[in-house]
Write a structure and sequence with these properties.
60% of the residues lie in helices and 0% in strands. The protein has 55 residues and is an all-alpha fold. It is elongated, with a radius of gyration of 16 Å.
């Protein structure tokens, strides 16, 4: 959510050149990579929790 807020502020016209190091920031999709990473992490955390519940 934080990365999508950065993109929203950029669209409003605020100078956000500090965050140009983020991948895809220049095309308004800086949220994509962190979201994918969070989804993968959540998948493994969820799998671990369900495995512990079965044991």
């Amino acid at each position: 959510m934080v990365f999508s807020l950065l993109d929203a502020v950029k669209v409003m016209g605020v100078d956000m050149s500090t965050f140009n190091f983020l991948p895809l920031f220049d095309v308004g999709m800086a949220w994509l990579l962190p979201t994918l990473v969070a989804m993968v992490v959540a998948k493994f955390v969820g799998a671990r929790d369900s495995a512990l519940a079965e044991a």
